[in-house]
Amino acid sequence: LIAIAEAHGKLKQLPEASQRLQEALLSAHQIDGSYVKAGALSAIAEAIGEIKQLPEASQRLQEALLSAHQIDGSSDKAGALIAIAEAHGELKQLPEASQRLQEALLSAHQIDDSNQKAWALIAIAEAQAKLDLWRRARLTPMKCPVDEQKAEALAGILTTWAERNEESSKVDII
Q: Is the pLDDT of residue 46 over 50?
C-alpha cells in the first residue's frame, strides 16, 4: 500500500490517482496492526499532499483521519497524524483543512506518550500556520507537555511566518 500511494502521488493523473488512493484508504482501514496501518495512512496522506489539485483531497484526508483515530500505538498514531497534518498544510483548502486539523488535534490529545503527543501537536501547529490560522497555531503548542517542545513548535510557526513575510516586506537594518 505504501508503494502504491507513493507511486500515485508522483503520477499526478487526477482521476486515476483519486480512485487508487480511495482503494488504498479502504485497504488501510482494514489493517489490524497499528504500525502497518500508520505507515500506509502516512504514505497515503503524503501522496494526497503531493497531488495538490486533487478535488477529493480533503475528503480523502478525512477518511485517513478517521482511520488514524482507530490506531492504538502512540508513536503509530502520532506518525499518521503528523503526515495528515502536513498534507493539510500543503493543500491550503482552508475551510476543510481547518476542521480536519481540529479533529487531528482531538485525536492527538488521546495519545498517551507525551513525546509522541508533542510531535503530533507540533506538526498540527505548523500546518495551522501554513494555513494562516495563526491564533490556533499559537495556542496548539501550549498543550505540549514539555517547555522545550513548546519552544520547538513556536519556532516552527515563526519560521513559517518569516518565510511568508520575507517576500512581502523588506526590513532595513540601520
A: yes
Q: Which amino acid is at 42?
A: S
Residue in 58, 65, 9 with CA at minimum distance from that of residue 37: 65
How much is the average pLDDT of 57-63?
80
DSSP classification of residue 170: -
Exposed/middle/buried for 138, CB within 10 Å: 0-12, 13-18, 19+? middle
DSSP state of 140: G
Measured from the Cβ of residue 29, the count of other Cβ atoms closer than 10 Å reads: 15
One DSSP character per residue, 118-167 reads HHHHHHHHHHHHHTT-HHHHHHGGGG-SSHHHHHHHHHHHHHHHHHHHHH
CA distance 96 to 55: 12
Amino acid at 97: A
What nine digits make up the cell of 157?
A: 510557526
Alpha-carbon distance of 147 to 145, in angstroms, equals 7
pTM comes to 0.75
Band (pLDDT 50/70/90 cuts) for residue 173 is very low
pLDDT at 166: 76
Distance of CA 11 to the CA centre of its chain: 21
- For residue 24, the tally of other CB atoms under 10 A from its CB is 22
State the residue for C-alpha cell 498543550.
143
